[in-house]
Structures are given as C-alpha cells and as structure tokens.
Amino acid sequence: MASALLASDYPAYAESISNKTQAPLGWGVRPALIILDVAKPYFSSSSPQSLLQSSCGTGETIPAAVASLVASARSGGCPVIWANTLFTNANLRDAGLWKQKVSAKVLGAFNEKDSERQHVGFLEGLAPETAVQENRSVVPDLVINKKFASAFFGTNLATQLQFLNVDTLVFCGARTGGEIRQSALDAQGLGFRGIFLLRSTMMSVHDLPPAVLLAAAASICFVSLYLVPRILGKRKYHLPPGPPGEFVLGHYRKIPFVAAFKQYAKWSREYSSDVLYFETFGTKWIVLDSLKASVDLLDKRGANYSDRPKFIMFEELRMGWAPTLTWLRWGPRMQRHRKILQPAFSKSQVRQYQDNQKKQALLCLKSIADDPNSWNNAIRRFAVAIVLNISFGVDVDGPDSPWIKIADDAAEAISNSGAPASSIVDRFPATRHLPTWLPFMERLRYARKWRWAIEAITNVPFSQAKQEMDQKIIRKCFAHDRLAIYNTNAEKGVENEFNMDDIRGAAATIYIAGNDTTATTVILFVLYLMQNPRAQQRAQKEVDRVVGTKRLPTWEDIPNLPYLNLILQETYRMNPLSPLGIPHAALNDDVYNGMYIPEGTIVYQNIWSMHHNEDVYSDPMIFRPERYLSKAEGGNGEPFPVGNFGFGRRVCIGRTLAENSMMIILVNLVATMTLDYPLDKDGHRTPFEPDWSFRGQAHPLPFPASFSLRSAKAEELLRNAF
Ligand code: HEM
C-alpha cells in the first residue's frame, strides 16, 4: 500500500521514514472500519461543535467520504464500528474534567439528557445497521459509546475486536488531532494495525501536530481514500488469521524447513484460531489445527476439498509419469483410480491377503531371531513383501532380494524430497527452471538425482508382470487382474477404461503408498515398546492370558487383545507419519466461520498438533496406552486419535490392510520376544532418544535395539512356523 503522505508534506515524517528505524506496519488480514464521531454533534450546522465550516475546508466532504467507505466495508463483509462520544448524566458528571474545561453548552451537544437533544445521534443516511441482515453473513455494525477522545478508553472495544478476529483498523472520523490520534495510538498499544485515511478525516496533513505525525509514522500507514474502498470491498470475508508475511516473499521465510507443524501449532495458539492462513508468491495455504475444523471442511464439505495441489516436486521425481492416485488432482482420472483401487482394499477383500501377511510377519520375526542387529531390514522386507505381492504378485525371497533395494530407493527418494507441496518449486513453480546448483534449489537437485528410483519402482515390476502375461503365467495380483481385463477388452475391440499408464500407476500406488508407511509404524512399535517396559509387560501378559504360551497368536485372537490395540492407537498419536497430512486443495471459494478460503487454497491438517493438544491429551509427549481406558478402568477416557489416515474423499484406501499387517506382527512380536535398549558391557540398559527426520515423513533415524526370545518354547514355535 503506497503512502499518500509525501516527504514534501512534512519533513519530520520524511526524516522518520528515511532513517529506517521505524516503518509503517501496513495491512494485516482482517480489517474493520472504525468511524469516530461522524455524527450530529460535529456535522450538523446548528451544533455548537459543528466542524462543517472549519478552516481546512474538508468538513462538508467527510460524511460523503465516510458513506462510501461504509458501503464498501459492508459489501466486503468487513465489520463497521461506530464510536461516538455520548454523555448520559444530566449534569455531565460522566464527562470528568471535560466539564471543567469545555462549556456546558458545547458539551451538551454530546449529552443524551440535554433538554433539547437536537444534536445527539447519527446523521441521516449515515447510521449503524445493527440488525442481522439475511444476505450478510458477517456481524452487524458495532456501536461503542465513549466518554473521551479514544474509542478504547473505558469501553470494551478491544474485547469486541478480538472476538471478531480483527487485526487492522481503518480510521476515519471527525478530529485527526483528538479522537483519531488517541484511538490510533491506543490501538497500536493493544496490538492492532492502523490505517489512517487522509481525506475522510477532518484535518489535512499540514494541520497535524508534529507529535501526531511522528507517532503515526511509527505505527500507522497513511493511505489515500481512493484505494481503501477497493481493499475493504474485496475482502468479501476475512481471510483466516496468521502471522504477518514479508514483502513479496510472503510467508516463505517464516515457515521452518524442518518440523513446521510445531511452529504452526504455536501460531494457532498465538492467534487463537484453528484455521491459519499463509501466502507465498501467490500460492495460498491454510493449516487446520483442530479435528473439528478438519471434519467440518474435509469430511462434511468433502466435495469442495477433494482436490490436491499440483505437486511440482513430485512431478520432478517423475511421479506424474505413471499416475499415482495419492498425487492426482481431482477429476475423472482420479475418480477412476479411486474406483478401481478402493474396492480391492475393502474390509472383506483384504481377508484374502491375511495368509501372506501372517507368513511375512513370522518370516520377519524369524529373521530377527537369527540376526537381531538387522531387525530394521527385516521389518522393511516384511512391508515390501506384502504390498509387492498384492500389486504385482512378486515374492520377496529373503532379505537380500533386489525388490527390497528398489523399494528402499524409492522410499528414500520420496521421503527426502520433503513434505508434500512444501518446497520452493511447489510454492513458486517458475523456480523449477532455475539452475539446480543454486543453494536454495537443494531439494530439486535431490529430486532430479533420484528420478531413476521412481522410474525403477514403477517400471521394473510392471514390465515383469507384462512379460509374464505374454508368457501366460497368471498370478493373483492387481497388475495381472487389470492386464487380463485390458487384453480381453482389446481382443474384443471393447474400449478400455484404463490405459497402460493407468494400470502401471495404480499398481505402483499400492506399492509406493503401502510400503514405507507400514514399515515405519512397525519400527515405531519397536521404539515405544523398548522405551516403555511397563507397557510391553502389560501387552505380554494380555497375550499370554488370551493365547497361552504353547502356540503362536492367530487372526482370531486379535479382537480379544484390546491392550494391543491401545498400543497401536498410542503409536498413531505419538507420531503421525504425515504430521501435516497429505494436503488437499479447495475447488471453489468457501467461507468457514466467517473466514474466507479462496479457490485453490492448499489445505494442510496439523495432525501432530491435534494429537498433542493438552486440552484433549494429558501429558501428550508421554507414551501411555492406558489414557484411552475409561476412568473406571484406570484411564482418562481420552479419545482415540483421528486423522493419521486423512479425511474426506481422499482418505487412505489402505487402512484396513495396513492395520492387519501391523497387528499381526505386533501380536507375534509381543508373544515371542522382549525388546529392550541395547545393554552395555556390564549388562546395563542404555536409554536414549533416537534422532528424528521430519523432512518428508516423520520417522526416527536408524537406532539400535535389543531383541531377546522370551522362552525356548517361543523360539521353537517361531522356527517351526514355516
Ligand atoms: C500406517 C499405514 C498408512 C498410513 C499412516 C497412511 C496414511 C495415509 C494418508 C494420511 C493419506 C492421505 C489421506 C488424505 O489425503 O486425506 C493416505 C492416502 C493414501 N493411502 Fe495410505 N496410509 C497407510 C497405508 C497404506 C497402504 C497399506 C496402502 C495400500 C493400498 C495405502 C494407500 C493409499 C492411497 C492409494 C492413498 C491416496 C488416496 C487418494 O489420494 O485418494 N496406504 N494414506
């Protein structure tokens, strides 16, 4: 916003600006118009206080200027506040020292008990609208009756503004040196930004006393009357609150590169809002900080929030090359992919994978029993083996299988290219054309270097599946099923709904979306059980009671093991793998709780913050599965965490499959092994907190753990399992 105050207008102001020790604050995100004393006492010609014939000659133009501002503010949904001086005691006792300073005749113009009462009140056609209008979803006008110059002194204006989430006041009114100056300085002291309108106030710049100008230069943005109605009118609703951005860069430098969710959680508290707004280079995003806001927008208004942003960084990784549902924009292709993938992972369909899931879980535990130091690889192999078999019918034979290497490389490429849609190329797509040796292009450099890994994971298993089909080798898996339909249609001359790229992409989606997520959750089990021996012992007791020690647990046992489910829930709560969810995007403009969410806005869900909200979870940083038990059972009755698998029409399709994988390995792990910190040479535990990576998925970096078989019988059961 350009200042309308020129250096030539007032040298002291020019000097204050040019020495750069102070600068005007400018606009925030939620302005309100405040009109100070534009009412009969100052603007009726017979009033003893009339300013209509003032020496600066602007008196007559003020009401018209204010009327145009009021109209713009109302059309834009900005609150309008009328602050008028009003005395209510017949003897002007409520006027304090004014009574001694100003004659009773003059003060009577503001006194509602004045015998004539002809000067009290608003001007015709320029008065508050306090009734709720059907066609206005914003608050009605606010009327503040004040006794002294400042609209804040002795009134509840600050409280009302906070309630309305207002952060910027556009001042217009009768007397620049009195009401406006006092109110503007109080506003600044209370944390509101001031926009000071030159031609809707009584005095010209040249009339301003030096003290007003200097104070104003520090706190207030001077603007011309011409621009403000356009700004007020454009703000149809207020954008959600958020920290102020920087010139041009917006919030780009304000968002931490690592663990941004913690900073977002702080801002949410600071701005008392569960919806925060940010903008950089024209890219707009909001962060939802509560379950309620996430459900309200992403579930209940799912039709409007089923889009995804354009994931430029993932395009650079060539993920657009084979359409991957997770990153597809809303549209027919995305709907086709969901239609074809979702049924394959319904509760009833995933039963067909259970035999293989159990087999892979026991193979994993056997492998850990044989080589405890390679436990991390064994878990990775477990997760890969399940999804690769479902998608391409491939058997992962042994820990050195090349499939594990391919999956790990792809997971590495995706996870290290950063949180989805958060890099500089996502925020400012033109930067993808800049040379990658520039220091801030590190992530693009990384993505291009790792493209081959994504190409390998989408291409290698698919080529193998096609070759097998050509050789009439049929396996029960997604790729073979779809290729068979494709080939039959092609032979009959029937048009195929899915082309080859679609089949390749959909099959790869299962593999890409289901591998690292499952493996990381199992690694988190290891971490939390190792760190929390009491929880581990309680889980072991439960398994021993329900299953006994003479056999291994089965699928039928799982519903009878509620404490193991609490461990799963607590693991979800402690560390959601995507702390900010996978972003959705708004297809159309929307208004939520009076906040304007423009079309195209990217929507993050701060799952981490929801799961660590102290109002919901006591001691949220502590792993305590009992917290979900009712009070009668010794718990706190806290709710299960929601959101780890997303929301609305883009919710994860693999949840049941993933939970089956995680529960079958957890129950067998607890039944056969005890986990602990590594022991030192004297046999003492060596507690530690591992390092974490928050760049893409939130996960602990590799850490050591000690696994010991619980008994000779457990060892025998594991060894004879296959
Ligand atoms: C612990 C395991 C898993 C977690 C925590 C997880 C989490 C998520 C999350 C947060 C989303 C985004 C949802 C949204 O945007 O609202 C998602 C999407 C998705 N997940 Fe999972 N997931 C897991 C396992 C799996 C598995 C095993 C599969 C295998 C089929 C899978 C397939 C998908 C797909 C295809 C999508 C994209 C849905 C869409 O964009 O329409 N996930 N998952």
From TrEMBL:
Superkingdom, natural source: Eukaryota
Pfam families xref list: Isochorismatase, p450
Required cofactor names: heme
Stored InterPro entries: Cyt_P450 (IPR001128), Cyt_P450_CS (IPR017972), Cyt_P450_E_grp-I (IPR002401), Cyt_P450_sf (IPR036396), Cytochrome_P450_fung (IPR050364), Isochorismatase-like_dom (IPR000868), Isochorismatase-like_sf (IPR036380)
Molecular-function GO term, any one: oxidoreductase activity, acting on paired donors, with incorporation or reduction of molecular oxygen
UniProt keyword terms in alphabetical order: Heme, Iron, Metal-binding, Oxidoreductase
Domain Isochorismatase-like: 32-193
CDD domains: CYP64-like
Coiled coil start-end: none
UniProt cross-references to Gene3D superfamilies, sorted A to Z: Cytochrome P450 (1.10.630.10), Isochorismatase-like (3.40.50.850)
Protein family according to the UniProt entry: Belongs to the isochorismatase family. Belongs to the cytochrome P450 family.
The protein, known as: Cytochrome p450 2c31
Organism: Ophiostoma piceae (strain UAMH 11346)
